[in-house]
Amino acid sequence: MRVQHRSSALWVLNSRAAERVGLAHGRHPGIERDPTGRPTGRVWRADEWLREPLPEAAAPSMAAVGRRLARHGITAVTDATPRLTERSVDALATEARSGRLPQRLRLLGAPLRPPLVALPTPGPWKIVLADSGLPDFQQLTDEIDAAHRHGRPVSVHTVTAVSLALLLAALEQTGVLPGDRVEHAAVVPAEALPVVRRFGLRVVTQPGFLADRGDDFLDGTPPQERADLYRCASFLRGGVPLALSSDAPYGPLDPWSVMRAATARRVPGGRTANPAERITAAEALTAYLSPAHSPGSPPSRLRPGSPADLVLLAVPLADALSHPSADLVRLTLIGGGIRHVRL
Question: Chain-wide mean pLDDT for the chain?
Answer without folding.
Answer: 90
